[in-house]
Amino acid sequence: MDREEYVEAVLRAVESIPEGSVATYGDIAEYVGQGGPRQVGAIMREYGGGVPWWRVIRASGVPADEVGDEQLHRLRSDGVRITNGRVNLRDARWDPQD
DNA sequence: CAACTGACGGCCT
DNA sequence: GAGGCCGCCAGTT
Predict the structure, then answer these.
(1) Which nucleotide is nearest to A47 (CA to C1')?
(2) Fold for domain A3-92?
(3) Rounded Cα gap, residues A71 and A84, in angstroms
(4) A1-15: buried (b, 16+ CB within 10 Å) or exposed (e) per residue?
C-alpha cells in the first residue's frame, strides 16, 4: 500500500464514522490496519477538509489543541455529550460494525 | 545516515 | 485526574 492509498483508506474510515459518535486516532489506525495514531493525525492536518474530521479525537477524549473549541462545538451539534471539555468515550466511541 | 518532529498512546508517579 | 516519560512511526531536515 503506497502513501496515496493509505491516505484514501484513512479518509474513508473517517467518513464512515456516523453522526453522534467519535473515534480516536488510534481507532482509525487500527481499523485501517496500518501506521499509527501519529500518521492519522498528520493526514488529518493535511487532508482533513472534506471529511468529518471533528469526529476524531485523542484517546483521552480531548480534541487536538489547534482545533479544540470548534471541534467541541461541532460534536455537540452532532449530539455528542460533552462534559468539562471532554467527550465521554464510553458512550460515544465508534463501533465499526455499525 | 543521524536527528528532529508531531491533530498520539500507554504506563507510572 | 494531571503530568511526566518514553515508545511509536512516517515524513522532513
Answers:
(1) B7
(2) Arc Repressor Mutant, subunit A (1.10.10)
(3) 14
(4) eeeeebeebbbebbe
